[in-house]
Amino acid sequence: MERPARIIVLDDEVELRNMLLRFLRGHGFDVRAAEDSKRLYRYLEREPFDLLILDLMIGDEDGLEICAQLRAQGQTLPILMLTAKGDPLDRAAGLETGADDYLAKPFLPRELAARINALLRRQKIAAGEPTVTSQSVRFGEFALDVGKQQLTRAGEPLEIHSAQMLLLVALASSPNRAVSRDNLLARARGRDHDALDRSIDVQVLRLRQIVEADPSKPRFIKTVWGVGYMLAADVES
């Protein structure tokens, strides 16, 4: 039997925190709650979680700073940010800091459940293990030997920067499947922690400039909204 998703809630309002605990447990989730960042970090050090529900304002603490700190530490669990503010700029700030979704208070419990389930589905899609390790992956005139990490165009070997090669290999390891930005970063940095910028999006743009006839209308390196990127390619043994 599949284990229930494990969720941790960070909110300093006792009433809301208890309401979230009751509601989420009633929907079959395994839930922990923290009233401040210190307790949150202790939980995260001891136990693995599938999702964090994070209030934008926790007493004197700033949820944006907590979110940024978690991402800087390499924490990749999805973050759903709650806030009493409805300003689009606050929403943009949360997403830019590393949150995966944003829900303004007051909210309907049904919407909260729907957003949680959507984030968990995305995580499952994006967390798949590489499916190709040695085959040749072809897209247009290009062919990538995944095992040898060699890219050719019309049969001729190409030289590309190591950062773009690492990213291409990470995408080619799961062709025709959406891969999250965090997953791409983790796979690509497995061999060279300094090869990639913090922004996967920048490296995707540079890779598109190499393999796409028109980078603004990508044919091979496709954006999968809400998830990450995908390499549209043919796999050969």
Automatic annotation (TrEMBL):
Span of domain Response regulatory: 6-120
SMART domains linked to this entry: REC, Trans_reg_C
Residues where 4-aspartylphosphate is found: 55
OmpR/PhoB-type domain: residues covered: 134-233
DNA-binding region: 134-233
Keyword hit for Hydrolase: no
Superkingdom, taxonomy of origin: Bacteria
Pfam families for the chain: Response_reg, Trans_reg_C
InterPro entries the UniProt entry points to: CheY-like_superfamily, OmpR/PhoB-type_DNA-bd, Sig_transdc_resp-reg_C-effctor, Sig_transdc_resp-reg_receiver, WalR-like, WH-like_DNA-bd_sf
UniProt keywords, alphabetically: DNA-binding, Phosphoprotein, Transcription, Transcription regulation, Two-component regulatory system
Protein name per its UniProtKB record: Response regulator
